[in-house]
Amino acid sequence: MSNKSKLATLVGAGIVTTATPGVVMAQEGADVERIEVTGSRIQRQDMETASPVTVIDASAIRAEGYTSVDEILQAQPAMAGMAVGSTTNNGADGIAQVDLRGMGANRTLVLLNGRRMVNSGSGADSAVDLNTIPVAMIARVEILKDGASAVYGSDAIAGVVNIITKKDFEGFQFDITGGMTDKNDGENLELSALYGFSTDNGNYTFGLAYADRQGVMQGDRDWVEPGASSFLPTGSLDGKVLDEDGNWVDRTTGYDYTQDSWLQTPSTKYSFFANAIHEFANDVTFTGDFLYTKRQSEQMMAPQPASVMLDVCGEVNVPEKDCITLTPEMIAGGIAPDERGKVEYRRRTNDVGNRVYEQDTDTFRISAGLAGSLDVHTGMDWDLSYTYGKNKAETWGHNSINATKMEQSIYDNQDAWFSGDPLSDAIINDISYLETTDGGNEQHIVSGILNGELFELDAGAVAFAIGAEYRHDSGYYNPDPVIVAGDGTAAQQDPTDGSYDVLSVYQEVAVPFTDKLTGEFALRFDDYSTFGKATTWKIGLTYEATDDLMLRTVAATGFRAPNVSELYGGNSGSYDYLTDPWGNEQDPQILVNYTSDENLKAEESESYTAGLVYSPGYIDGMSITMDYWRFKINDAIARLDVQAGLNACYDGDPTACETFNIGPDGNLDNLTNPLTNVGYQDTSGVDFNLQYSFEAVGLDWKVNNDLTYLIQFEQDGVDYTGTIGGMFGGYADVKNNFSIQAGQGDWSLIYSNRYIGEMEDINYGDKVDAVLYHNLSARYHFNNIYTATFGVKNLTDVEPSAVPSGNTAGTVPEVYDTIGRQFYAGVTFKF
Length: 831
Prior knowledge:
InterPro entries: Beta-barrel_TonB, Beta-barrel_TonB_sf, Plug_dom, Plug_dom_sf, TonB-dep_rcpt-like, TonB_rcpt_CS. By secondary structure, the chain is mostly beta strands.
């Protein structure tokens, strides 16, 4: 193997941009152990690949005060869209996900130690719940910002997040980290213990972690505007309310729901993890890792907004018994039945209590492998592994309302309901119930890989990897029977239950054409029990133009197979934030019926990256990377843009009216959003990274700047570039992270900032201001036992930008920091 320049060594480290104060460096020399690098199955010595990779190591995670994996990832400039997490209070069931390039959480593959992680959450989930992976077990996170289906198969369209856990650990380490906001809420605590020991044959590492996060109420932030829901605790009939004189008049006030809704949701997690490496006498090595996480989480919102359509006595086809009688005062107030003889009654059921959703999830994963060498040719390495993952969840919805019983109760107790007075205990007990659901996911993977060298060229050996894999995925979700029957005031939903199998074979070849030019070629074939077959390929080139400059490019195809929920999910309702162009709806949350399709095909994609790595010899310690990227998805499995459909139907497009089941005069009673294969995405941009390490004024300095410039993000005919909204999240033109670290010996101080550029509201066109968050942290190493970390996040207490079509508190919490200034501190004890 030829000697590598300083530049190649830096690329091997993953310059490959890193967002960390510390960099994971490769060592030079012929004795370096061959390892597998994220984005390739070929084991190599120099870690040099054509694909851009960001590396975030454990020291950076600790210094920045990150308490969850999703927080680590969503702070990166390459993330966009609206990945759910700790600030998602409505509908996410406490899960946390990653959204690379804003292309959707189900298009980013999550690996644990290079092997797939089981999808997890409340059941039949389409992506990995990052809550299942405790921060305490992470050695580093590698983010491959390139399409990788030819290497890893489905779901890697936008890239790969590979979480590498701590191993080869000796001794005992105990960490305690805690924090809170300057408003005395949002407390968090993390305790972890790590123990490892080595023998003549291997190493065994075990860990325990406990994490607790307290909630933050929307009403406890001054910038949150009071809510103005049309659902009032005293009720309204046909949009009218009783005044003090007993007259029915137009509703002029709204209900402030922000006092009863979380801005940051509470959560408690318990984890146990282990890693083992054992070498047998016959040079066969066993590797295994184990992970179990229990999550108990909660979301809370204002009492259920209940709406029922009531039959009016005396109208055509209305039964004489189960109906309401319109009093002369109601008629005088303008209350009148519609063409079906019905009037709408709305009530915020404060008498019943706040909606409280609880989840108890258990996620289990075990992966074991045997690896060894064959005395064939120049030697070949083999690896056989089995990975099993299982997730199960129980969820409860307290103080839910049975709409069917509520309707009957109104017929039976008209005066009690329409008086505006509090409801009796008997009525409350009759109409309310505890909503109970359960679900889960399961995964089996058997994999075998053979690595080695084929033959020698003048510039070095041609390396290869060839492998096969069998995978079985299944999932189920059982909503409460009341919801399945459509009797709840929450949206109707059908059960989900299904599975599929896939058999895959793949190969990779790395060819050193010259000392300066290397090619990487991958080909993969997958055979699914559902939609059929898929073939994907990747071609990558690296060219060391000079000792200081390397050029790299990758072209690849990819695919994403439809998951269990997309294939077998049945119908489900969702209250989406929409604007009714006809003006018939009283609230921005409009019920949309989501449908799935067992005949969905796989998505197909093309990706292209081209960039450079520059490490000027005249500036020691500096490296620069710049990469252009583009991803195109065809036959995307997507729900159409309902807002665009509403607007088109309103403008007279009959096809849009038919597609979304919009009735005459804008009747949205059966508004539907189907899953189809007619969607597409086309996104492109530029990533830039600068790292510089130097000594000055007696201190060691490290500077890092990570920038993503979004050129375009277009989906299904809508240009989201530079826009933000409550349904799709944010696609800022510019996102940038900057950090500078200064230290000497036992101490270091880090200043960092995070910039999210100006955007435009996708629905209203309003300007949404840019934000710049400032952070400070310090670390002091007292001795070989004690190390302390202190920090402040969002030092200047910057408020989130106002988003008119936001989904919570007048903004989009998945994009901006809504919690405010936070203080944190941690201590590490190592023996």
